[in-house]
Design a protein that fits this description.
The chain is of the alpha+beta class. It has helices at 57-92, 158-168, 273-276, 296-299, 384-387, 458-467; strands at residues 98-100, 106-108, 129-132, 137-142, 147-151, 177-182, 189-192, 206-209, 216-221, 238-239, 248-253, 256-263, 268-271, 285-289, 303-310, 324-328, 357-365, 372-382, 401-406, 421-426, 429-438, 449-453.
Length: 471
């Protein structure tokens, strides 16, 4: 066997090389220092960076900053939008942490009825004193206890009585009297301070008390109203006698009766807004009190009018808020004649129910083309739902209206005199429940008469009286 000679390939494991096989030259012998092992582990060199089209590092940071800025701006805009929505809700909704003035502003609840005017138009001090029920019980709103409290008669004088009536809206000269009534109050009382200051508001002259000596509370009559009528009358329509309805007035334009009205104080007349809509100038009007026929104008003075106030929400189409006030230039002399006197405004808590009996008085013609005479007839209040039925007014009656039907169909009174009073006798006092605004008495269908609901407008009436108290 022929053994082949093993040769070593110098190109193995040593990277690329080029050897010419036909080269016969002998290489010089290698020194010991040049001899290296043929199989040596080499670390592979790092591969060259791959070529990429990515953004350089400084550009990548810049892009991230831009994205962050955009996100921050969008978030800020969303927060501003949310804040705007919350602010809009706050200003368009009732005050969350206070009381609303009525003109968009708010005051703290502790500022309500504290004797200091904080709302621009004084709404915070407007309805803080009231009379309750048929006994005229005096109640004042306490901002500390946040409820209406009865006033204890201990230490009470006529001076405090006048101050309270002025707060309601009556002039100082119309004050009638204070009284006492025994009553229990689970909500506590208000007591007059010992150091009463007549120059300060009555609301600042009272302190809270859980007790009251003998439980004797104050009753208050700001004007001598609601008396002078014989209640045992026939129910049918008939001519009224002089002095029977002392609050009835004839409101005249150019010497002719235009509308009726009711005296509520020596200065103030309640009537319908549609009566004064076309003649809103006070100089166009004169008022006669204590008359029942044309001859009455010859023996009674004509009172001029200084101000006419129609309800700002009056709607001539729907007859909503159809109520108005007239202020006389000088007060009626109610002490000089028993034929003239005010009717009482319905106090809060006066229990008036459906089917309550009442009376209406209106000027009308007995003979066609004849003169105006005051007529009277008895009526009965009817439920609003019945008045809104399809056979009556078919949903046109709102909460600021009352309906009343005449009790005697035989004596049915077909008159069309606006502004005249609807009154009712309760607990010996005559109360003004409504002002005549419209009806369809003369259509042959005998639908009930419709009247403005004076109880609904009570706050509005007192507000106007306070506002123009010194006119």
């Amino acid at each position: 066997m022929v053994k082949q000679k093993m040769t070593t390939n110098p190109c193995l494991d040593s990277g690329p090389c080029l050897i010419r096989t036909d080269d016969k030259r002998k290489l010089p012998p290698l020194s010991q220092s040049d001899v290296k092992p043929q199989y040596v582990h080499h670390l592979a060199p790092k591969p060259p960076p791959e070529i990429s089209h990515s953004i350089p590092k400084h550009k990548d940071v810049k892009q991230r900053c831009v994205k962050f800025t955009v996100a921050a701006v969008i978030s800020l805009l969303l927060l501003l939008l949310l804040a705007g929505i919350l602010l809009a809700y706050y200003f368009s909704s009732p005050c969350v942490h206070g009381m609303q003035c009525g003109d968009g502003g708010c005051v703290w609840e502790s500022q309500w009825c504290d004797g200091v005017t904080d709302c621009p138009a004084g709404q915070d001090e407007a309805n803080c004193v009231r009379l309750h029920g048929s006994t005229f019980l005096l109640q004042i709103y306490s901002t500390q206890s946040r409820n209406w409290r009865t006033v204890c008669s201990h230490g009470w004088t006529e001076r405090q009585g006048r101050a309270s009536c002025q707060n309601i809206g009556y002039s100082r000269g119309t004050y009638f009297k204070s009284g006492q009534q025994k009553t229990d109050s689970d909500d506590g009382f208000l007591l007059v301070k010992s150091d009463f200051n007549p120059e300060a508001s009555i609301l600042q002259q009272l302190v809270l008390s859980n007790t009251c000596p003998n439980n004797s509370a104050v009753t208050l009559r700001c004007t001598d109203c609601g008396s002078g009528v014989n209640s045992s009358r026939a129910s049918g329509g008939q001519l009224a006698s002089v002095g029977a309805w002392p609050w009835q007035v004839s409101m005249q334009v150019v010497g002719s009766h235009h509308c009726g009205g009711a005296i509520i104080s020596p200065y103030w007349i309640v009537t319908a807004a549609h009566c004064v809509a076309r003649a809103s100038s006070p100089g166009d009007w004169v008022v006669y009190a204590g008359i029942v026929d044309p001859l009455g104008t010859l023996f009674n003075p004509a009172y001029s009018v200084s101000r006419i106030i129609a309800h700002e929400g009056y709607n001539s189409l729907t007859r909503r808020n159809d109520i108005a006030l007239m202020r006389l230039s000088k007060p009626l002399d109610i002490t000089a004649s028993s034929n003239i006197g005010p009717v009482c405004l319905p106090n809060v808590g006066l229990n008036i129910t459906d089917h309550q009996k009442g009376w209406i008085t209106q000027f009308g013609e007995i003979v066609n083309g004849g003169s105006q005479y005051l007529m009277e007839t008895q009526v009965s209040l009817i439920d609003t739902a019945d008045c809104n039925s399809s056979i009556a007014y078919n949903g046109r009656i709102s909460q600021d209206m009352l309906c009343a039907r005449e009790t005697d169909a035989v004596a049915y009174m077909c008159l069309n005199d606006s502004g005249g009073p609807l009154v009712s006798l309760k607990d010996g006092v005559w109360w003004l429940l409504g002002d005549n605004i419209w009806g369809e008495h003369c259509t042959g269908q005998k639908r009930p008469g419709v009247y403005g609901n004076v109880t609904y407008f009570l706050d509005w009436i007192h507000h106007q009286m306070r506002k123009h108290q010194e006119d």
